[in-house]
Design goal:
34% of the residues lie in helices and 31% in strands. The protein is α+β, with helices and mostly antiparallel strands. It has 3 domains: 83 residues, Elongation Factor Tu (Ef-tu), domain 3, CATH 2.40.30; 157 residues, Threonyl-tRNA Synthetase, Chain A, domain 2, CATH 3.30.980.10; 109 residues, Diaminopimelate Epimerase, Chain A, domain 1. The radius of gyration is 34 Å and the shape is elongated. The structure holds zinc ion.
């Protein structure tokens, strides 16, 4: 069984070990050592990285008490090697794992919420709780977690067996029956107590800062995205810089930014309504000036919504059938509409337009629309005008 040095404090960053075995598997090499500082994946925490005799370790798993290190090249069996740890990655994982215990323990104590899921990825970590927490509750949870960070409470552990487990009051018990169950206490159990196989900080102060980044309703509870330590500080600093730049672009302060955004949204809404009214008026004027019963118009300045507005105006005025071409990113959008009582099939008409433009679209006998990547010419409009006149 591999001697596991990864639970020690302060963190052991390297050790000497003997290579017990090395086997090729799927292009990589699975290496077992007499001892290791490299934590294998477990308890929701990803594996450490490091080197064995200079060979990079990209992953590690535990099976039957042995740690299998996934290496990019073979190492000689029986050799004495130096095992080194990617310390930055470990400290980040330990801070996030300890932070996870603190958030989960406090969510249970403050709101009776149980942790029902934990996931730690390279660039984010989530906790799933079975009780929904609103923004006010999440703020309180974050504040209490950071208060516990500042108190620099001890993170301690005891080892027990399955029978001994019953004598401890703990938030979350492992389902496994094992001879060696590890219970981790934060602040002697005041903040949290939980069975766990991950790596942790020695004191809560080492977590540095716990930041709740986002939360979404998840089943009947909530999923919380959080970060800790250096990662949380980097994220908070990046967001502060972004907010400052956005506030400057609105000529306001960060504090006044929400009000400035609401004002800009209101103004944009009013401008859109005004533009629609004016487009409707413009369409009415164009329609009044068109005497054709087969109205085919080419107006590249109009959007897909606008061409429908113009087609409606045309059939309300003199047109029995209207076909309007608008503009669309170098190509064209178009729609066909008939006056009530007309029998020409607009979906069939659009098929003919699609055949000429190489575009796509369809609709009902009363209204159809399409789009093409190619620009539409006056010649094509003239062809369609003749086609509609003959078909009417
Ligand atoms: Zn843990």
């Amino acid at each position: 069984m591999t001697e596991k040095l990864f639970y020690e404090h302060p963190v052991i960053t390297s050790c000497e070990a003997e290579v017990v075995s090395c086997e090729e598997r799927n292009g990589s090499y699975e290496v077992v050592l007499s001892r290791t500082v490299i934590f294998p994946e477990g308890g929701g925490q990803p594996a450490d990285r490091g080197t064995i005799g200079g060979v990079p370790v990209t992953d590690a798993h535990e099976r039957g008490g042995e740690v299998f290190h996934i290496c990019t090249a073979p190492v000689p069996v029986g050799a004495r090697v130096t095992v080194t740890l990617d310390t930055e990655r470990r400290l980040d994982h330990s801070a996030r794992h300890t932070g996870e215990h603190m958030l989960s323990g406090l969510a249970y104590k403050l709101f009776g919420a149980h942790n029902v899921g934990f996931h730690m990825a390279e660039d984010y970590a989530t906790i799933d709780l079975d009780v929904f927490l609103d923004n006010e509750a999440l703020s309180r949870l974050e504040e209490e977690a950071n208060r516990a960070v500042r108190r620099d409470l001890p993170v301690t552990e005891v080892h027990t067996d399955h029978e001994g487990l019953a004598s401890y009051t703990i938030r979350k018990k492992a389902d496994i029956v094992s001879d060696d169950i590890r219970i981790v206490f934060i602040g002697g159990g005041e903040i949290d107590s939980c069975t766990c196989c991950g790596t942790h900080c020695a004191k809560t102060g080492e977590v540095g800062y716990i930041r709740i980044a986002d939360a979404q309703k998840y089943k009947s509870g909530v999923r919380i995205w959080f970060s800790c330590g250096a990662m949380a500080v980097r994220e908070a600093a990046a967001i502060t810089r972004s907010m400052t730049n956005i506030a400057r672009s609105f000529s306001t302060s960060r504090e006044e930014l929400p009000a400035a955004i609401r004002k800009a949204q209101d103004e944009l809404g009013q401008t859109k309504r005004l533009l629609k009214e004016r487009t409707r008026a413009l369409c009415g004027l164009i329609a009044a000036g068109s005497a054709d019963e087969a109205a085919v118009l080419l107006r590249p300045e109009l959007s897909a919504a606008d061409v429908k507005l113009l087609a409606e105006s045309l059939v309300s005025a003199n047109a029995r059938v209207a076909l309007v071409f608008g503009g669309s990113e170098g190509g064209a959008c178009y729609c066909a509409m008939r006056r009530e009582g007309e029998t020409m099939q607009m979906n069939e008409l659009i098929k003919s337009v699609n055949a000429l433009t190489g575009g796509k679209g369809g609709g009902s006998p009363a209204f159809a629309q399409g789009r093409t990547d190619k620009p539409v010419t006056e010649e094509l409009a003239a062809i369609m005008r003749d086609y509609i006149k003959k078909a009417m």
